[in-house]
Amino acid sequence: MVRHIIKDILFLNQASEEASKEDDQVVQDLLDTLKANEQGCVGLAANMIGIKKRIIAINIGFDNIAMINPVIIKKTGPYEVEEGCLSLTGVRKTTRHQEIEVEYLNRQFQKQRQKYSGYIAQIIQHEVDHCNGIII
After folding, report:
1. I need a surface site. Which of 68, 72, 126, 130 has the fewest CB within 10 A?
2. What residue ranges do the domains of the chain occupy?
3. Is the dihedral of CA 30, 131, 136, 87 positive or negative?
């Protein structure tokens, strides 16, 4: 189901809780909402659709994927960038890292550990920040 995008800063500033297998509908709603907003959006966190769970959905160029309970375990190559967000108006400066390593669960709850770089790494960092209650 496509959900409404939350713009309440007080809500978005709260850290999200660990997700469980019972949150599969949240994963689907997040992927549906990302697909519905693909013209102006490359990633979403569950709190952006009103659910404080550690789930993100990102566009990796050819597909949208979900990451459950993502944790960035390594990051290198800091740089300054301006980002926008569906929950905010305008763009803001922030620091991101060129390369990251992330541990997360896929939709089947299998543990994954992947390295990402460039724009996809930037998207993941933005959405993991949302899970931690950090907005740009």
Report:
1. 72
2. 9-131
3. positive
